Amino acid sequence: MEAAAQSVVALNGLFARELAEMALPWKAEEAPDPRLLVLNEPLAAELGLDPLFLRSPEGLLLLTGNLVPPGATPVAQGYAGHQFGWYAPRLGDGRALLLGELADADGRLLDVHLKGSGRTPFARNGDGRAVVGPMLREFVVSEAMHALGIPTTRSLAVVATGRSVQRETLQPGAVLTRVASSHLRVGSFQYARATGNLDLLRRLADHAITRHCVTATDAERPYLALFQAVVAAQAALVAQWMLVGFVHGVMNTDNMTISGETIDYGPCAFMEAFDPAAVYSSIDEGKRYAYGKQPVVAEWNLARLAEAMLPLFHDDEEQAVALAVESLGAFRRQYSAAWSAGMAAKLGLSDGPDDEETSALVDELLPLLQEGQVDYTSFFRSLGTAASGRDEPARGMFPDPVGFDAWAVRWRARGPDAEAMGRVNPVYIPRNHLVEEALAAATGGDLDPLHRLLAAVTAPYDERPGLERHAAAAPESFGPYRTFCGT
Ligand code: AMP
Ligand code: MG
Description:
By secondary structure, the protein is an alpha+beta fold. It has helices spanning about 1-10, 15-20, 40-45, 50-55, 55-65, 130-145, 185-195, 200-210, 220-245, 295-315, 315-330, 330-345, 355-370, 375-385, 390-395, 400-415, 420-425, 430-445, 450-455; strands at about 25, 35-40, 75, 80-85, 85-90, 95-105, 110-115, 155-165, 170-180, 245, 270.
């Protein structure tokens, strides 16, 4: 068994070796009756993993952490984090393990990570487990994000463990195998800083530079360059979330990566009717993580990262703070530039975001969408049809189209490019009602709706007959959507 695994997968233990103070060697809980629910074959191919092996009994043992390739050291990673603004010094992988790093076809190291693999010393009161619905949700939404061109952790597989897990009701247990360019979080730096071990903090930053921004090595201040790279990556990432109407739902600092990949799809949702105040998570009572607040929250989180990294910026604290403040100042500019350019592209306007009339068109459109409670995704897709001469689908979304008509005259005068719009405005996003429907069916044993949903959202710009339902907003009977952290 071990020989088979060794021939198929060679895992590095870079994090475990370099950052032993934050890496607790641990073992996955046994899965009594593992059954593969979904395997991401294109991703397996990118990783050089044989899908036939992954589907085999040994493969399922590997995917649940029950077969450890020789030489690998699975670890629970330690991290801290601000959760809804409150600092928690010891979070860490309570129900997850980093199996190790795998080199992809280009030699780039990627984390192979398990979620739902049993209690670890970081578990606090949790049971260490995960259940089928939420793990499939992460699979669907992360792969949809990837297909939309948005940086994200990837999902390799979901395996049902064969164990019943107590949630509000008994649910089938599952393990998600996740792949990421790393699992370093803002909270990882907060954890290292809180130990008071400056050498650990420095090693963590060096590790991050090696994995995410080797160019920082040549900078005058490599650690400041690392921080600036994280600021830039997060500004670009959150702009992309905003452009597709994605609400992360739980932007705690432990759920924000150093790589700039989206991570931890818990109570996330795609907004339908455009609304800056949109919140879906049942526990976000203060609406801290509303759609429209995401850029400000990201900036707040980056300020926490700066605090954690401060001693690395300069020996003199005052000068370190000045450097951090200056670097963080770039966030707003970078975010605005990325968002404005993205909006101009969504409108099919190539004259660019700096054009005054283009930015006026954007500024005037959003209140119209909000007032008319217009479905954000369908609107922009239909606007592509309007660019090729047929206004009605877009116009028909407004209860009162007067404002839209006036806007559309000015917009059309700019010569929007319908074809370009079709490449940036998706037809298919993981709509909440379809995600819920697919997860409920899968939990009951029927995987067909899940596969149909995956087919739609993994080719989001490619409109296909037979998938009309997947392009439409939720029926009114679906009601206001609520998501839960109880994953
Ligand atoms: P999350 O809200 O999923 O980002 O998780 C926040 C923290 O809670 C992390 O430290 C997780 O490892 C931990 N956690 C979440 N669910 C469980 C669980 N069922 N058992 C143990 N730890 C958990
Ligand atoms: Mg998390």
